[in-house]
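Intended use. Records like the one below are meant for learning the mapping from a protein sequence to its folded structure. Do not use them to infer anything beyond what is encoded.
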Amino acid sequence: MKKQLSFSEIEFANKRKKTQKEVFFEKMRRIVPLVAWCDLIRPYYYEIGMGRQPILLETMLKMYLVSQWFNLSDAGAEDMLNENLAVRSYVGLDGDAPDETTLCKFRHLLEKNDLNKKIFVSFNQLLVEENIILKEGTIVDATIINAPTSYKNKTKQRTPEMGSTRKNDQKYYGLKAHIGVDEHSGIVHSVATTAANTSDIDAVNDVLHGDESVVRGDAAYVGIEKRVDICEKYQDGSGEIEWLTHSHKKPAYMVCKIDKNVKFEINKKRSTVTTDEQKALEKSKASVRIKVEHVFAVIKQRFGFRKTRYRNLAKNANKLLMLFTLANVLVYSRHKAKVK
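Structure written out for the chain above:
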């Protein structure tokens, strides 16, 4: 039996001008592979039994996506679904929205079974099959996400998993999101989450897939080709690795030549760039590297994720995987628009 529309829903359906949310949700209906994502989650979702029936998986996933797109808490997502007709239409609600506890349990289900990572990998695999991700070059970068600095908690101290750092003479406390972006498409293919006091170059090995012909980065990655883990990643096994050590027997840098044909296009530090020719060269490097900043703009400006509400680093890593998946969805939609 078809649901009878209320007066407000009839008025909303007959209005002429579409809101920005309606336009956004129409695009997401076309682009987001909701069926494939539901298939990944379904083996871990609640089974239909004789008692109280679980809420439809598609409804819960859409509610979760809304909470990510608008950076809402569980309670905030429930309120938005109860008051905004555009959001209710996208989720497909007939009555009251699922309460915040239901959404919280669904989020914990995704975290427990590492499902956000599976969704991230599966969507990127789809883009590889469509030749959007070419894996010819990677742009690496990192951004700081602030965390609450309050001591008003049970332990009376800051979260030990977060860290403090300084950038441009300003102090920050929180976590750092490291990403590897496909040079051709601007799609994020790798994500790593660390405390903010972890240097960019220490996490770079986690965001490179090893098949690149070129690696691009800012001045924070100067000396990347001399690191032990990077040289080992790009060795093809034909040469031996030799070390040059200091007095304390710690490896200083790799002296063997990297076997694979890979270039490291890293911007130099500003203090070392003096001539006009050097400035022009660094500007050309930065113009290619700008794609990584577009992704961070989506996460921080469009999705509003500038400050985390979770104290646990693993929870934030899980959230970032979904946010970068949804950022990839937006980049993918632009590629589809260009093809048309």
